[in-house]
Amino acid sequence: MKKLHIKTFGCQMNVYDSARMADLLAPLGYEPTEDPANADMVILNTCHIREKAAEKVYSDLGRLRLDKETRAKRGHRTVIAVAGCVAQAEGEEILRRAPHVDLVVGPQTYHRLPEMVARAERAGGRQLDTDFPADPKFDHLPKPGAAGQPSAFLSVQEGCDKFCTFCVVPYTRGAEYSRPQPDILADARELLTQGVCEITLVGQNVNAYHGGKGGLGGLLRALADLGVPRLRYTTSHPADMDDDLIAAHGDLDQLMPFLHLPVQSGSDGVLKAMNRNHDVADYYRVVDRLRKVRPDLALSSDFIVGFPGETDADFQATLDLVKDIGFAQAYSFKYSPRPGTPAASMEIQVPEELKSARLSSLQTQLNNDQETFNRACLDRVMPVLLDRPGRHPGQAVGRSPYMQAVHVEDGEKWLNQVVDLQITAAHPNSLSGVPLSPNAKACA
């Protein structure tokens, strides 16, 4: 068997795409390895949301060049591929800056990887494929594989029509596309037969899904009827939280009580400049309605600080929103200009040192809120999916319904099972628990 190493940057959609690339290449004799230095093929599945993420790709490519040269001296060939959004946005530039790269493939054409790899192995030469094909790539992908894992991502929607002024997704992933519901249900059945008990529906704007009757809410209901024990979805947009989807949070026990709902800013002026298509009052209304139907719902969000033109008052409005709502988790970043986006050419750019100060202040509040939420979980009993070994011998780690990491000592015998755990310790970024035995529920 040949060895394949895939390094994934960015969002859950990229995690899903990386798994599908591994599925595509398995018939060519490639099996996964964690060691890029001894891999016959290395794929960097990239993200273009922030400048640093893109530059990390070129840094990794520099190290891979040395690995490739070392293996060549031993008579071994290494195929290096760049996939994902950086590949889509900077295809020709990648080949110019990193001539040792063999393949550059965009997020809409990775289903052509087997053909590209076969050509590279036969005839050599570098290949670039960043088209937007008329036929959806999903029509050409094999059945999903879960690789013995109890949880899996399932892509239901891709692309975005929102055109937020800071975001490159509409340019790298293309227009919104929703997979037909029957195709998604077929994939879910396949995952269930492989022992998966938690499915996360993914998409750039997942709650804009319109591939079946009832939108995303209808799809979640169909998956619950199919027998999926645990359901999640990400990433959602506040403007697309319709009545049926909100109701599904109250109706479906299978839908975990955790929602990632990016707001980006607490200032109406900044939200308008971002072209977010919602204001602060809209966000509060959605949160209030969600908590009314599901009182135990926990929220996470995304925040951008230092967006062009952001004033001290705008930033204070973001802090006020955070204090009002209370997020169990959150991701926060300094604004990073992306070439070709409208925000990159806006006149009033916030100084870097002010961005850093604001980010530090926001993260202090967000971290405090996360610790408060974790402490509130002490002594509670939670059904936790133990899905991976921990760092210590015998330890198992899982995810709570609220996406917290939960550690269990001597828990290996419960791996790949949902176990009722009593929470015994709360840490800044995780929990610890002990099983209430006998209570394990196998995923298969």
Q: Report strand %.
A: 15-25%
Helix content: 25-40%
Tell me the radius of gyration: 22 Å
Low-confidence stretches: none
- Report the total helices: 12
Main sheet record: 6 strands, parallel
The coarse silhouette is: globular
Q: State the end-to-end CA separation.
A: 29 Å
* Overall pLDDT level: 92
Describe the structure in your own words.
The chain is an alpha/beta fold and 444 residues long. The chain folds into three domains: 2-129, Methylthiotransferase, N-terminal domain (Rossmann fold, 3-Layer(aba) Sandwich), CATH 3.40.50; 137-373, pyruvate-formate lyase- activating enzyme, CATH 3.80.30; 381-442, Beta Barrel (OB fold (Dihydrolipoamide Acetyltransferase, E2P)), CATH 2.40.50. Helices cover 36% and strands 22% of the residues. The chain has twelve helices and 20 strands. The chain has helices spanning 12-25, 51-73, 85-97, 113-123, 169-172, 181-193, 215-226, 243-251, 268-274, 280-293, 312-325, 352-375, and strands at residues 2-8, 30-32, 41-46, 79-84, 103-105, 127-129, 151-155, 157-158, 177-178, 198-202, 230-234, 258-260, 298-305, 329-334, 381-389, 396-399, 405-408, 417-426, 430-435, 441-442. The strands form five sheets. The chain has a six-stranded parallel beta sheet with strand order 2-1-3-4-5-6, sandwiched between helices. A five-stranded mixed beta barrel has the order 15-16-17-19-18. Strands 7-10-11 form a three-stranded parallel beta sheet, sandwiched between helices. A hairpin with a 3-residue loop joins β18 (417-426) and β19 (430-435). The model has no long low-confidence stretch (mean pLDDT 92).
